[in-house]
Amino acid sequence: MNLSLNKNPAQSKKTSNLSGTCAIPGDKSISHRSLIIGSQLLGTSLIYNMLEGEDVICTANALRSAGVPIVHDIKNGVWIVKGVGIGGLNQPDNVLDMGNSGTSTRLLAGLFAPYPFVTMFTGDASLRKRPMKRVISPLSEIGARFMTRDEMRLPMAMQGTSHPVPICYTLPVASAQVKSALMLAALNIAGDTTVIEPIPTRDHTERMFEAVGISVTLSQQEDGMHITVHGQPKQSYADRELTVPGDPSSAAFLVVAALITEQSEVTLTNICMNPSRTGVYVTLKEMGADISILNEREVQGEPVADMRVRSSTLKAVDVPENRAPSMIDEYPIVAMAAACAEGVTVLRGLEELRVKESDRFAAVVDGLRACGVRVDAEGDTMIIHGSSNIIGDASIATHMDHRIAMSFLVLGLVTEAPVTVDDVSAINTSFPQFMRMMRGLGASMHTLGSKQNLVLPLRRKDDQRLVIAIDGPAASGKGTLSRLLADSFQIPHLDTGGLYRATALRLLAQGGDPNSEDDALRAARTVNVHDLSNPQLREERVGNVASVVSSLSSVRHVLLEFQRNFAAQDEGAILDGRDIGTVVCPDALVKIFVTASIEVRAERRHRQLQAQGIEVVYDSVLKDLISRDKRDTERKVAPLLPAMDAIYIDTTKMTIAEVFDEVVARIRRDMLERVERVR
Ligand code: DC
Questions:
Q1: Residues classed as catalytic
Q2: Which domain, by its residues, includes 193?
Q3: Index of the ligand 1 atom closest to the CA of residue 547
Q4: Same domain membership, residue 239 and residue 255
Q5: Which of 5, 31, 140, 472 fits as disulfide partner to 478, beta carbons 3.0 to 4.6 Å?
Q6: CA 635 – ligand 1 centroid, Å
Q7: How would you class 294 by CB atoms within 10 Å of its CB: exposed for 0-12, middle for 13-18, buried for 19 or more?
Q8: Is the pLDDT of residue 177 over 90?
């Protein structure tokens, strides 16, 4: 297997003595629901410990494009959702890009179905392969109409309905997503909508409805649980705080790591213990796992606890089919535990595993066999022959699947030779902190690229350094965005406007004439790197002269070399300015163009100046910006304009945190598309 092309491979090696305490990041299912249900309430919801994985960001962005104000307050670690109330959504103003997230797609299809407008969904290559029939069927019954690609896959357009019909629907597959899609649709349908669930699935939606005061009736009958939502309830304004409990599915990777490695003792805090999610712990306990449940409590209707886990000698088990819904996401990691257990483990009823983010059934079987574990596959049953001596020494194909990547990295902690997984980028969808936490517990687990970039593991060719070019007009927010990205990627940043400002400052100090090319050129030649930290650079008078000298091609030429050298550093670089994507770094891996309306930019600049104690009226700031824009865009050399292949972002109605989230999601998507093209 080729490990070098555009991927972010990682490796784990034999480790013992894992020890320490980890607070588990927010549960993915509950994070999605907090945002969606928060959007349907009246009043503000403050959401703490939300999982900031890419799937959840997709939900946030989709809701934003339907008119729900959602602000990510990075400093205080809280997401603020201003609810628009039931029936209060607008038609999304663009195709909703759901990335890798099946949950976002299915839940939001339900939410939007009882609205009389068209909503369009797409996603990445893996999501575009996943079946949507399961939501299309019941939502068609309530009156929505769909157009999809072949076999009911994304891209998909949904014509919502202005006369939605309340239905009684029996789930043909055990799917919490389909149940929740219908429950969310039901909010905006007059009358009672009932979902009948023959096999229980995770009940986070029911619990959160109740916790925020939306009434749901549950009635256990012979054919299953009847869940009835009384549509269009009366709503009143209230602000609330929601804390997302830790994800038991994420915790399971750390739990199994502690169980199978020798002399380990690990404490994990804040784990959601909802019985519809803890099948994995029942199974592990049956296998003889030493797991103690501590400090049990309840948070917004969800049981929550801490867990102490010690190394254990595991024994094989036979996991019954009916446990699948409560541990469907955990089979890959349970399969790793089974590979290390004494005896032959049988995992039954794994049909659903074939239509997850990848064909997980095949990925687990192939991966285990590559590590030297004997595995038999019989229909939907997987039979794993445990061993205390697994060879490893394998390269695992993760198929862009986060749980496959994490599972095999955990297995590599006990194999004789290291296990390599071809790509850990997908781990960001659910558990961005995974590798960092594992290393914190003492695990030998590292990415194989030169940089361990856990915030944003970009896939890049080995010989292609990460250079990000950011352009945009004055006060568009490009400087702040660049600094945030530079922090996340841990790469150096150059504000190239500073070079033109430094030229202007030198020219002023030398008593030169801004309109004399000779004077400007002389000033440009004397600029050095220390000038860039001079606080006088930010003064408006300097900015105005910078705008004049920057229209001279000889000046630009002198400053070009410095910028290109900066971009050529081994660590990669971020440069922001006006012509970075078009002239300075036309080969940059990522190009971004940020802009905003002139009024909003003037307001931002005005506020910034006031904060610095500089008294200036808004109208004069606006006038200055208008003339600067004119000079920057109309000049003959290197005029301000977006590169053809730039990501274009209008920040008029966005906070900087939103811009950052959007850019991160877009960069990742672009990278994934690039990988697909290469494949
Ligand atoms: O971004 P800023 O306001 O600090 O930039 C100061 C001036 O320099 C501005 O008028 C545009 C110009 N500039 C440029 O022409 N090319 C760049 N790459 C960066 C800035």
A1: 329
A2: 28-243
A3: 10
A4: no
A5: 472
A6: 12
A7: exposed
A8: yes
